[in-house]
DNA sequence: AAGTGGTCTAGACCACCGA
DNA sequence: CGGTGGTCTAGACCACTTT
């Protein structure tokens, strides 16, 4: 099912494999209709997906221009989790260390962040991400245990997202993220290999399920020299 | 024209004005068809825009849930330029100082960034952004003069984007951005009020017109404590 | 059983570009 | 003038939720 999505994946693949090279035009919508034996609307849905993710630029009365799919490395974008990054093209020698795993009632700050009361239960997990032998990233996750039950340190050392999506079958849908720069605390200096840096790039993220439930608040702190965020954005209007 | 866009704007406004409150559902697609006297497809286009910009979450067989439109401040996202930020809700006492304005052939690095030859002409503009009396941001713009002619220091001190879009009538379409953290050079320490910080948040941006012409490469460096980037992202699949 | 959003189709008109 | 993408319409079937 979801024909338009199949067409999107197919075209995306062919652009990445240079079958449709940068600077050339895709077949017209009329031709794509025939190629994929589908209606124009369906083809256009696929093309819109390609445009919004930066693969093509649609030009009126000319066609769909294939863009140069440049470097796509270390995106915080698209809800990518650390575990997914490992699997990506940019493969690091990486390791996750669970430095603390707690379960209990949240303090006032976390109650507010997760929008829960003092009687609720929350997992508080701290993890250190090691890349090429250096402790680079510190992740703090605050997870609503009522929504995400059954976590343990073993799952945390693997991938919490995979557990949520595959084991629990809960669909992660969207996130609000904020990137700032903060001073490193003494504890953070001890936990990470900061090499003299006293600032950290701080990515705070509110993560939601498909039914718009806020299930997790994450604070991810990166050593400045190892942080990189890439974005493709279209201008409104 | 562009009915679906009008509907989008109307609904967006009503969500921002709390006419449709967070946590409630929008009228069903069927009702919206009648409300706006349009077809279902047109209504759905508007709803998709709302969803992709984070205003609603569509839930199958239930409806379009209105999300809590939180803080939207200082987004680098969406191609927002400094001049637009000024006009936004978060109004700063701000001022732009053109610290250097040059016109000539580009060096090898800029030739590569702008994808032009050594015989081409490029504007190289440095601007300091003052917010509340403090010099916080340093912008370097490298602009292809063949595409964007007629720039001068006066325009640079106002808004280059406005000049491109309104005076020249050229449509700015999309950008590729990269955020990293870099060490401040001695020159940058002199130009900005860094208050002891020796790192800067560096936003590099390749900016394109609607016909996918690369017209401008920008490097924008921010004092770490004044930098903030907010993003809404949907999970693929 | 009624209502919802997700998908797909077929056809239409427009504005504009290039031959 | 034919081809392009942009927009809009009307109708259809599906899977599922709610009543």
Could you please describe the fold and organization of this structure?
- The structure is a homodimer of 237-residue chains.
- With 237 residues, chain A is of the alpha+beta class.
- Chain A has 2 domains: 3-66, Winged helix-like DNA-binding domain superfamily/Winged helix DNA-binding domain (Arc Repressor Mutant, subunit A); 77-226, Chorismate lyase (3-Layer(aba) Sandwich).
- Helix content of chain A is 28%, strand content 33%.
- Chain A starts with a helix and ends with a strand.
- At the A-B interface, strand 6, strand 7 and strand 9 of A face strand 6, strand 7 and strand 9 of B.
- Strand 9 of chain A pairs antiparallel with strand 6 of chain B.
- The structure holds a DNA duplex (19 and 19 nucleotides).
